[in-house]
Amino acid sequence: MGNEKSKLNQALDTFEKDFIISTMQNQNWSRKRTAEDLGVPLSTLKYKMRKLGIYEAVPKRRKAQKDK
Questions:
Q1: With bands split at pLDDT 50, 70 and 90, how would you rate the model's confidence at 67?
Q2: pLDDT, tens digit, for every residue of 5-59?
Q3: Which of 11, 24, 44, 55 has a CB 3.0–4.6 Å from the CB of 49, allowing a cystine?
Q4: CA–CA–CA angle 25, 38, 6 (5° rounding)
Q5: 30: nearest Cα among 65, 68, 64, 67
Q6: Can you give the three-state secondary structure of the chain, one letter per residue?
Q7: CB 29 within 8 A of CB 65
Q8: What pLDDT is recorded for position 14?
Q9: In 6-19, which positions are buried (b, 16+ CB within 10 angstroms) versus exposed (e)?
Q10: How far is CA 6 from the centre of its chain?
């Protein structure tokens, strides 16, 4: 098989990627809330996002600045 991913692994990666993106959309792109919703630590979510090539593609949210 070499370095090629099996069809099953490709399908699982595609499902996981789509599921994470869908959950992030539902959580207004919040990584923290997405991890909580998925029931995984934030570090695990970030690892999976990097592995699947979506970490940098997901919009970064900026915390609302409080008026001084």
A1: low
A2: 899 999 999 999 999 999 999 999 999 999 999 999 999 999 999 999 999 887 7
A3: 55
A4: 90
A5: 64
A6: CCCCCCHHHHHHHHHHHHHHHHHHHHCCCCHHHHHHHHCCCHHHHHHHHHHCCCCCCCCCCCCCCCCC
A7: no
A8: 96
A9: eeeeeeeeeeebee
A10: 22
Structure-derived torsion over alpha carbons of residues 1, 3, 58, 17, reported in degrees to the nearest 10: 10
Do the beta carbons of residue 5 and residue 16 sit within 8 Å? no
What six digits make up the tokens of 40? 């995984």
| Amino acid found at 48 | K
Please state, in angstroms and rounded to a whole number, the distance separating the CA atoms of residues 8 and 51.
16
Question: Residue holding tokens 């990097």?
Answer: 50
